[in-house]
Amino acid sequence: MEKLIITIAPLGNVPTKELNPNTPITAVEITDNLERCREMGAAIAHIHVRDDEGKPTSDREKFKEVLDEIEKRKLDMITQLSTGARGGANTPEWRSQMLDLNIEMASLATGSSNFPTSVNANSPELIEHLINKMNANGVKPEIEAFDLAMIDNASYLAKKGVLKSPLHFNLVMNVPGSAKGTPRNLLHMVESLPVGSTWSVTAIGKAHIPLLTMAIAMGGNIRTGLEDILEIDKGVKESNYTLMERVVNIAKAVGRPIATPDEAREILSLK
Ligand code: MG
Hints:
Helix content is 37%, strand content 17%. It is an alpha/beta fold.
């Protein structure tokens, strides 16, 4: 089987130090987490940032602080910035402001859905704006598919020539309000991908370990980190390192070797 690409998503939008004291918030904390997760096998850094009050933001300057810290330490990881809907204003300009930074990937939702307490609103106009800016800056989209409709819309955008093939998908499972994290749903989504696509799985909460294990066994790739799960065993706060340790052990048990950042670049056609 192809080598396994592990993405680390150290903080996302929801975790706080109150919910889990291991959540990194500042640029230095985030990069400390990324550095050690790289040593443990993570190839891609899925990065969100917070403002000075700790709230999620799409602020270009805040993303730049993290990227500068990564560069200062000469940390070799594939940088993937979030263009998600929870970073403040939901305008094409605000959502895309970080895409001219020196990065290799960015997230792209190709449809709308619900988060537990807000709308994951991605209009056709916003989606095309994000793609065009990614294309102009040589940034590869990671298509965040929360359901089948987002896969079909990505296929349509590829046929139209807006999205460039081969496509890379992240199948986001078990977000309350979106596709439930069941093996049957995951299998159906994988089978619905355009031929030649690469894919990864993100699974929230209870579905995290079962669906990541399934993805590893199927030859897909995985994402872990506090963005996706704060506790596996009740009352035990995970950290990005304990989560990395778990998934690396599963990969070893299944017999999937782990991709370095350069091998991941090859697999994802980033070069
Ligand atoms: Mg994210």
